[in-house]
Design a protein that fits this description.
Layout (H helix, E strand, L loop, with lengths): L1 H8 L10 H28 L8 H8 L3 H26 L4 H21 L3 H15 L3 H11 L5 H9 L1 H20 L4 H20 L12 H4 L5 H6 L8 H10 L2 H31 L4 H14 L1 H13 L4 H21 L5 H29 L5 H34 L1 H23 L10
Length: about 450
Amino acid sequence: MISKIRNFFSAAKHIERLPDDEVKRLYPRYRWRVMESTFLGYATFYLVRNNLSVVSKELEVGLGYTHSMIGSILAITAIAYGLGKFLMGAMSDRSDARKFMAFGLMLTAVCNFLFGSASDFQLHLMLWALNGFFQGMGWPPCGRSMGHWFSERERGLMFSIWNTSHNVGGGIAGMLAAWAVIHFGGWQYAFYVPGAVALIGSVYLFWRLRDTPQSVGLPPIEEYNDDFTEDEIAHGTHEKELSFKELFVDHVLMNKWIWLLAFANFFAYIARYSMLDWGPMYLREIKGASLAGGGVAILAIEFGGIPSTIFLGWISDKLGGRRGMVAVLCMVPILLAFTTILLTPAGYLWLDMLMLALIGCFIYPAINFIVIMALDLSSKKAIGTAAGFIGLFGYIGRTVQAKGFGVMITHYREVYGLDTAWKIVLYTILACTFMAMALLMFTWKMKPRA
């Protein structure tokens, strides 16, 4: 059974090279096809992942869940996703991206259907843990596809364009979940409606996505873009499939820069997910926002990162691949935005939304650069493993903030009141943002490998 599963998901085989005129005609089409399908596919993963926080208040009212219980659900999905991204990343580096990603999206859709049908906390905890684990089948095949279809010299711009799929999917997720609840009249529809969309997306991915250029009769991207050196052409080093030892040990565990980026990602993810996981509830409890306003908060964070991610990715290419320098500079306005939210009294919701958009505007480019730096420092054959390792640390960070902030709010609310409890949480977020910036300072002069 295991061997049959492995064979089903194994990397698509190389086929005979097409004539040069066909290569010239088809290569741009397939590159667009891969960009389009991975973009839409990964955006759809977010519809069945970022929908819980929008209805967390409804779960408290309807099912009697506490802040701490909501935090537990958020935390378990975060750590499950981190583990899934790490383990699935290693698998995806040796798998067909088309089958791997499509199957993962189908599984996470099923988890959403089951979650909406349940009303027991332990069952919800288990289902959202499974959902988080299967979500780990989303990013790694995208990283594999982008690494094989777009070369190093265009990586900053093209990866950044693709990376905005996070923002599109994440932004729509909040609005779609809120709309489904308001339109159909129950929190369950925040899971049913996105689940249905995800099933359609799974079929679309299986039909549209392709694995490597060689699997459709095209040359590797380095040859197409004239990025091969003579030695690489002679030995085929860009196309050698790596063993698990080479993936885990040589390209990840023995690479000090991957470890540095992993720890930076830990703190950056706290800054990223603090407002995605808790922002809607914070705005509703402290700033007087509505259910729809909570959905708009997520939209503001996610859509705020779209133009900046693309623009700053292009800038990093123009600066010779100085992703670390740009990432450090991105952390400064994030610190200012969180400080403004902390100091802004109720009644100025427009300013809170503006600051959330500013956070999204700069946190997504920073995290995008962390992943691109990992690819710059490893290999396109190991991007799933490297990004999975870094992502594991990121989602440990999300787990810490999801559970930790839930416990903090529950505890300090009883001692100091709800308003002070949220202020303590915001001070913690500020400290973590500063730590991410301090670690990224070590990458200030970093450039892609020569």
